[in-house]
């Protein structure tokens, strides 16, 4: 077989390049970070002015603030940056020991009630969490059930780091609660299972930080997730999950990565996931 002449080969390569789908530009609109922590270990390394500047440079115009302890959330709420809306949540952790037993600790309920009564400089608390359940059966703990019912009664959203089995258990206590599922599952719950839970629970919202399988090796949106977002465009939000200082150090990089895969969606769907769904959840106006 005779080799192709250079001019023929160049023509073929050009034709392939023209046929191949062009990658969309990254999403450039406002972002709402629906999973952000300003924990006690971050305060010394990343003062409030610094984290506000990082968010501004990243184009983040709204956040769910939840921190261990709640002092970090109060500090962000008190900063009252003109370009940032802070939606404060009550975290259930006064210290690291609370991670493993909060669901059966009545003093946590008292702490939540106290925080609700006091509020923040940015206004009343709008939600509870993030909380973890390392064993889904603990979703039936007395305190877990009590706080889910409280959230439903007070119209508070809930941010929960749980597996798919716990989603059903938590909703059994409060079927109308607004539940934000941190990472949309632990360990990469299959897309089919996520779809099933979205269909069963109309107030379930998936948060997308640390989500295995969401993107391909180049950071672009995987086809199964594109299909899911097309089916449920109003049911997902983005987040950074700044649970350790390294995540704060790369905050702008995390948001750039989100903008890449958001750019693979139709503009209206990208805007909903980037900003609109969270804004609707908390009654926020479109940023100017």
How would you characterize the overall build of this protein?
By secondary structure, the chain is of the alpha/beta class. Helix content is 44%, strand content 14%. It has 12 helices and 8 strands. The protein has helices spanning 6-19, 40-45, 48-58, 71-79, 106-118, 142-154, 164-173, 191-200, 223-231, 245-249, 251-262, 267-282; strands at 31-36, 60-65, 85-90, 127-132, 157-161, 178-181, 204-207, 236-237. An 8-stranded parallel sheet has the order 1-2-3-4-5-6-7-8, sandwiched between helices. Helix 3 packs parallel to helix 11 (251-262). The longest helix has 16 residues, at 267-282. The chain is globular and about 50 Å long. Mean pLDDT is 92; it is low at 8-21.
Précis, in short:
The protein has helices at residues 6-19, 40-45, 48-58, 71-79, 106-118, 142-154, 164-173, 191-200, 223-231, 245-249, 251-262, 267-282, and strands at 31-36, 60-65, 85-90, 127-132, 157-161, 178-181, 204-207, 236-237.
Write out key terms for the chains shown.
alpha/beta, 44% helix, 8-stranded parallel beta sheet, 12 helices, globular, 288 residues, 8 strands
Q: What is the CA-CA span between the terminal residues? A: 63 Å
Helix content, binned percent: 40-55%
Let me know the number of strands: 8
**Strand ordering within the main sheet:** 1-2-3-4-5-6-7-8
The computed structural class is alpha/beta
Overall body shape: globular
Order of helices and strands: HEHHEHEHEHEHEHEHEHHH
Largest sheet: 8 strands, parallel
Please compute the radius of gyration using only Cα atoms: 21 Å
Total of DSSP H or I helical runs spanning 4+ residues: 12
Regions with pLDDT < 50 over 5+ consecutive residues?
A: 8-21
- In round numbers, the mean pLDDT is 92
Q: Proportion of β residues?
A: 5-15%
């Amino acid at each position: 077989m005779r080799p192709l002449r250079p001019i023929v080969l160049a023509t073929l390569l050009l034709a392939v390049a023209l046929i191949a789908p062009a990658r969309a530009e990254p999403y450039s609109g406002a972002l709402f970070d629906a999973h952000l922590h300003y924990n006690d270990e971050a305060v010394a390394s990343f003062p409030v002015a610094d984290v506000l500047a990082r968010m501004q440079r990243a184009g983040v115009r709204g956040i769910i603030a939840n921190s261990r302890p709640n002092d970090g959330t109060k500090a962000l709420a008190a900063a009252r940056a003109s370009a940032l809306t802070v939606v404060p949540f009550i975290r259930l952790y006064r210290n690291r020991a609370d991670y493993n037993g909060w669901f059966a600790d009545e003093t946590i309920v008292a702490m939540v009630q106290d925080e609700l009564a006091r509020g923040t400089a940015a206004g009343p608390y709008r939600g509870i969490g993030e909380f973890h359940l390392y064993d889904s059966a603990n979703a039936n703990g007395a305190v877990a059930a009590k706080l889910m019912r409280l959230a439903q009664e007070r119209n508070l959203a809930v941010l929960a780091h749980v597996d798919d089995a716990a989603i059903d258990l938590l909703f059994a206590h409060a079927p109308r609660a607004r539940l934000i599922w941190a990472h949309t599952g632990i360990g990469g719950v299959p897309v089919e299972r996520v779809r099933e839970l979205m269909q069963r629970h109309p107030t379930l919202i998936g948060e997308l930080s640390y989500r295995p399988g969401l993107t391909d090796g180049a950071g672009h949106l995987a086809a199964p997730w594109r299909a899911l977002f097309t089916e449920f465009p109003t049911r997902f939000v983005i987040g950074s999950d700044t649970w350790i200082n390294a995540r704060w150090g790369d905050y702008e990089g995390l948001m750039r990565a989100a903008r890449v895969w958001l750019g693979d969606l139709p503009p209206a769907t990208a805007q909903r996931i980037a900003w609109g769904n969270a804004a609707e959840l908390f009654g926020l106006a479109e940023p100017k």
